[in-house]
């Protein structure tokens, strides 16, 4: 197992998204705290696969509420690849618009260079979100242990609550445990 250096630097690149600023009405109840009114940060790890989209849809439907901010994080092996950057930017723009339409939440996107599990945990440590949400391929327990997975790494190393969404029939494949 590879040791993760705590002060290790990593490269990232912001993604410019269309400006969709939700209008948040003032809270009607006096008992709501400033924390609730301000909204939460929620990290969603994405890639170009159907299980990632399923996890995004689940998060927007079940977790997000008005005034929250979604932070989309996509890990790549190299930031110099413009084709990957442009494809990821298009995906993130589409997801940002969908998140605004469904839950009226603000979206921030970042492409991060490095090992997916490590950089997702680094982003979670930097942002201190309410949750880190990601999809999984739905591999069996034995395959996950032998081959490793991003979800397993984040489950054991993230300092924030990871929520791992297992794909269902609507995501394209049934999960086998």
TrEMBL record:
Query: Which taxonomic lineage is given here?
Result: Eukaryota, Viridiplantae, Streptophyta, Embryophyta, Tracheophyta
Q: Domain (UspA): give its ranges.
A: 40-167
Q: Which CDD domains match?
A: USP_At3g01520-like
The organism's superkingdom is given as: Eukaryota
> What organism, scientifically named, is this protein from?
Nicotiana attenuata
- Classification via InterPro entries: UspA (IPR006016)
Name this polypeptide is given: UspA domain-containing protein
